[in-house]
Design goal:
The chain is α/β, with parallel strands linked by helices. Helix 1 (2-11) crosses helix 6 (114-123), helix 6 (114-123) runs antiparallel to helix 7 (128-149) and helix 7 runs parallel beside helix 8 (169-192). It has eleven helices and six strands. It has a six-stranded mixed beta sheet with strand order 1-3-2-4-5-6, with helices on both faces. The relative contact order is 0.17. The chain has one domain: Rossmann fold (3-Layer(aba) Sandwich), CATH 3.40.50. The N and C termini lie far apart (47 Å).
């Protein structure tokens, strides 16, 4: 366990950096407009493996809606790097700006929960499942509250890729099942609320060196975010 704790120090970089959020709007006259709200941690914010912020999967989802579905998009990205499910839950319950945008939204995408797991891992690896359990409960509140604010919105929730791919096999033997458990809880809560679960490990994990090129950082590059966006597009097209 001590070795695992030491190994986790590098992994602490996952989705935990300086807070970042932005919003963009576009609503041409005479064109049907999609109102798209992105929520989550640094994956939705577009944090890269080398400490910079670039285009995120949410930006590419917006681009897809505009270019391939020929729709105007009013886009608000409220993702914050380092965010936990507790913080996002508080936003959904109390941040009036975000609540109003959700009320007006057509599509909401979410990625959240990894930081809940990581914070427990860094303090006491034996309690990592407590972080996963907390994320599950908070996600239930997040999704049910969104449904209450806007019963007609299409909600898509991301499952995480494996952030531990560069770790030795003996360390991954402990950590990967945790990530799998987190994704299982995310999928379960998403489906229970009638929303759409979007897995990403099936596309990222087998090419992790290409999309997660920095062994010292678990974030994806822009090409990786494009791949995640493609998975969201597939799910959205199925729901059309």
């Amino acid at each position: 366990m001590r070795k695992i704790t030491v190994s986790l120090l590098t992994a602490a970089a996952i989705f935990c950096t300086v807070p970042f959020a932005f919003a963009k709007e576009k609503e041409p006259e005479g064109v049907q407009t999609v109102h798209y709200v992105a929520l989550g941690d640094s994956i939705a914010a577009g944090y890269t493996p080398y400490g910079t912020v670039d285009l995120s999967y949410a930006d590419f989802v917006k681009e897809h809606l505009e270019r391939y579905q020929n729709q105007a998009v009013e886009y608000h990205n409220f993702a914050v790097t380092g965010y936990t499910s507790e913080q996002l839950k508080n936003d959904i319950l109390h941040n009036e700006m975000i609540r109003q945008e959700i009320k007006e939204s057509t599509i909401v995408t979410i990625d959240i929960g990894a930081n809940d797991m990581f914070r427990k891992l860094l303090t006491d690896p034996s309690k990592a499942y407590e972080g996963i359990a907390a994320a599950s409960v908070n996600l239930q509140t997040i999704l049910s509250t969104i449904d209450g604010l806007n019963p007609n919105v299409d909600v898509y929730v991301m499952g995480y890729y494996n952030p531990f791919a560069y770790y030795p096999e003996q360390v991954q033997a402990f950590l990967v099942p945790l990530n799998d458990s987190l994704n299982s809880e995310i999928e379960s809560r998403t489906q229970a609320n009638g929303d759409t679960y979007v897995p990403t490990g099936n596309r990222i994990d087998k090419h992790y060196q290409k999309y997660m090129p920095n062994p010292e950082d678990n974030h994806l590059n822009v090409e990786g975010y494009k791949v995640i966006a493609q998975e969201f597009w597939k799910a959205m097209n199925k729901n059309r």
